[in-house]
Amino acid sequence: MKLTMSFTALAVVAALAPPALAASQPQEMEKITVTASRMDKPVSAIPNTVTIIDQEALQQQFRTGRDLSAIIGNLAPSFSPSRQKMSNSGETLRGRTPLIMIDGVPQTNPLRSGGRSGQTLDPAMIERIEIIHGANAMHGMGAQGGIINYITRKPGADGEQQVSLDVTVPNKANSRGTSFGASYGFSGKTELVDVIGSLGYRNNGIYYDAKDRVIGVDTTQGESMDSQSKDFFIKLGHDFARSRLELMVNHYDMDNNGDWSGVNGDRAQDIPTGAIEQRQPWEAANNEVTTSSLSYSHTNIAGQQLHLQLFNQNFQAVYGGGCFDSFYDPAFEGSDRVTLCGSGKQGENLFYEQSRNKSNKWGLKTTLVAKTVAGLPLDLAYGVDLFRDTTEQDLVVTGLSWVPQSRYDNIAPYAQLDLEPLAELTLSAGVRYEHARLKVDDYKTLWGYGDKQIAGGATDFNETLFNLGASYNLSPSLRLYSSYSQGFGMPDIGRVLRDGKSFPGTAPGIADSVALSPIVTDNLELGAAYQGEYFSAKLAYYHSAADYGARLALNADGFYNVKREKSLVVGIEASLTAYLTDKDDLGMNLALMQGRYDSNDDGRLDTDLDGANISPNRINLFWTHNFDNQMSSRIQANVFLDRDFNKADGSEYANFDGYTSIDASLALPLLGGSLSLGIQNLLNEDFYTYHAQTVGTNARYFKGMGRTLNLGFSLAF
């Protein structure tokens, strides 16, 4: 494997508060730190764009819904709009796949993504969300678009219990469309241990569009409507004189009830995909995820700070079934193991089949931080990360292997420096070396993928990544920053392995497929931030390039294949918040981006990236008001702009008709607790989702949810 070397920006801790946070406490911006980074630094030293969604902002968003993808998009508009499904396939940050974590533990499944990394935690247990924009190698593999880190709650000094209830009712109020959730949390502290935990349950009813029609069911990738989810979370910690030991375990289980089946729409006739109350003839889609970590930190080991984290994530997802040409195998003709359901393209008798994805990740992160090295204004963070991911995907009915068991081992030593030659200037530099090995057993592709025998084996990958960045304070209120950062990752290995087209020749093996090569994404960023008494503003330009990227492309069965191509995404992010009074904040977030890829391998970026690979241009507007009696309100509008997608010859291959959705919410104290009232899609806007318009098929031509009313109450005691 050729050694690749390039200079990139050191992505270190920091955050510019998003408008929802900065508006309420602009004077405290310098105190914000990001635990997803490896070195604590003040905001004025950061050469990257970072967004913090704090507890106050989260509670404002929870008033109208609990969809984490929608919440992130509301406050960081360069993130794709939610699909409103169990699957988050195609949801990107700055047009690239982000790495999703819980307390630093990766949730994204890099070897076989499956689009379920957004459904692994009850939102009620999140303290804040940290979003680092743009490619970086801070936590290793998978952060081509950035990092989204869900930071869980911490125990309070005094024992506390909390109960929360919420009910969501659609515009067409009925029992089938009603959703409800409940959670119980507790925390306490003794001389020996502190603890915080929770139990959560949610039951989602049927979703309706603006015309009171049942929204179509995605029985294959996964459906969040007509579903139930359960979550158990606990965190135990003990403080020593100069150190802390902490254990975190979270178990999340989401199951679709399987009581509704889809009815194909017709894109040409503008007929949306629908649903009928009919039992699905297969195991309904579900998610089961257990995330755990054991962390140890020490404030002074030979004058340095130490942090160790041992983690594990055990993931299993079952995808819904159907009649697919891809799953047909003549060896099962007449077998009593299968149930016939129709005929295929070649006249075969197809049968119901579905897949199951299993992934287990282990890792160890180590960090040592030395401050003022040799008495100089120089800080050093260094360590080594170890990572192992074992993944396979099989078929539930026939037991055939769709993706063979694959093991990815990674070791990555790193070192990062921060230098302050002047009080106003911070320079960052660093290096990270990635050594990875992919091991795959011998296997055979499915009959529908060519019935090819593929020789397994092991292949190694090595990348050396350098980082550079600078942040300069022109004044106490105005800061300029620039960085060149790099992300390292692998393509969706499972999609590559199962696709026989990636293995040419008469005796193919995994060593023959260049499609298994890593993805290296370079991110150039230029930004400015202003924090004044009357308003705050941010502006950033980014240029994200991959010489050998990974694009998702649909096949005839609606499954995604991986296309390895050169790609480029450029964009602008901006925000402005005006502090009209000490009780009123008015703001705007803006995200504009353009993405292109090389469709014929001639070196030219000639075709627009589609909706599975890039988010829409978007403007978010909001107004918050705090009343004298502890009441607060928020009105927000998401404006999605029209976009045309063009082929290499200039012809249009898809288009997106933009729309505007408005949410409104109110919170007030009641009976010692807090009562919230929220309305999502206040004006009952009728629209097709972004994903449905840009890459949806007749089976996934989904309308978005119409007006819904959410009523919640929480009480701490």
Q: Segments where pLDDT lies below 50 for 5+ residues?
A: 1-30
Counted by DSSP, the helix tally is 5
What can be said about the biggest beta sheet? 22 strands, antiparallel, barrel
What is the helix fraction of residues, given as a range?
Answer: under 10%
- Structural class call reads mainly beta
Radius of gyration: 25 Å
The first-to-last residue Cα distance is 59 Å
Strand content: over 45%
Output mean pLDDT: 88
Shape: globular
Number of strands: 38
Structural notes for this entry:
By secondary structure, the chain is mainly beta. 4% of the residues lie in helices and 51% in strands. The protein has five helices and 38 strands. The strands form six sheets. The chain has a 22-stranded antiparallel barrel. It has a five-stranded mixed beta sheet with strand order 2-5-6-3-4. Strands 16-18-17 form a three-stranded antiparallel beta sheet, with no helix packed on it. Strand 20 and strand 21 form a beta hairpin. 49% of the residues are buried. The model is unreliable at 1-30 (pLDDT under 50).
Keywords:
mainly beta, disordered N terminus, 717 residues, 22-stranded antiparallel beta barrel, five-stranded mixed sheet, 5 helices, 38 strands, single chain, globular
